[in-house]
Design brief:
It contains five helices and twelve strands. By secondary structure, it is of the alpha+beta class. A hairpin with a 5-residue loop joins β6 and β7. The longest helix has 15 residues. 22% of the residues lie in helices and 27% in strands.
């Protein structure tokens, strides 16, 4: 053995003894970070690379510039799980809450059922029973195809509610408070499990939005930005596994009255689906 080869061999033995490992060589530009040993952290990948899988007790390394943490198998798994959860009738709405500033997903809920078209009176009654906000101003047309949206303009206290025009079920309700912080009160339970990201892109569907600071239409740029996040999750693909995505409604939910607080505000994205009638 030459002196050079002997030195390389000694170096690799020393690296292994210290708990390190190499996977497909170094993480170069466009490469992937190696997996760490138990209790360790994954190394940071090179530019355009993907984060390595952590060892037991470790943390995944940050993705390289232009790259993203891989989700491939996760997207397939989450899509299958969501498809099963949403296919509980002929129609379903998936409601996703996004942080106003970062657009990060804060939670989601599924409201599924059968077709039961509603009129304004029945939608108001349902919103009143579920959220307490069925008596406010109707923001949508008198015969919406997506949601009935009611806005109780706050003096000190107010709120908003949305009821599916297809199922007659309430899909969102939340209070808006002067110099305070309103809270969502419907759905009662929000899931925080991952929805995936960078998943299969599906065709965009019609969408509109409402600004619950004053009940005005939400700007299209904000509607598109919020929808783009949800459209990159596993939600649309899951709904297309058993039905069809019809449309979406985006609500800017401020929680507060007076000075707008971007740290507590949210976008609420309602994705409506079902079997084609």
């Amino acid at each position: 053995m030459t002196l050079a080869r002997w030195m390389v061999s000694v170096g690799l033995v020393a690296l292994t003894a210290c708990g390190g490992s190499t996977v497909n060589g170094s993480a170069r530009d466009g490469g992937s970070a190696g997996a760490p040993a138990a209790g360790g952290s994954a190394g940071a990948p090179g530019a355009g690379g993907s984060a390595g899988t952590p060892g037991a007790g470790g943390s995944a390394g940050a993705p390289g510039a232009g790259g993203s943490a891989g989700v491939g198998d996760d997207c397939e798994r989450i899509t299958a799980s969501l498809a099963a959860a949403t296919h509980q009738g002929f129609a379903a709405s998936v409601v996703v809450r996004l942080d106003y500033q970062s657009l990060a997903v804060r939670g989601h809920a599924i409201v599924a059922g059968d077709y039961a078209p509603s009129d304004e009176a029945s939608a108001r009654e349902r919103a009143r029973e579920d959220t307490g906000y069925g008596d406010g101003r109707l923001l949508t047309p008198s015969s919406p195809g997506d949601e009935w949206v009611f806005y109780s303009e706050p003096g000190d206290f107010g709120g908003a509610a949305a009821v599916s025009a297809r199922t007659g079920q309430t899909v969102f309700g939340g209070s808006i408070i002067w110099m305070g912080r309103g809270e969502t009160n419907y759905p009662a339970r929000w899931e925080t499990s991952a929805l995936g990201h960078d998943c299969e892109k599906v065709p965009d569907r019609p969408a509109r939005g409402f600004d619950l600071r004053d009940g005005s239409p939400l700007g299209q740029a904000e509607v598109d930005a919020a929808l783009e996040v949800v459209w990159r999750t596993a939600v649309p693909a899951a709904l297309y596994q058993w039905g069809y995505v019809f449309d979406s409604v985006v609500l800017l939910y401020p929680r507060t009255v007076g000075a707008f607080d971007p740290t507590s505000a949210e976008y609420v994205v309602i994705v409506n689906s079902g079997f084609l009638e």
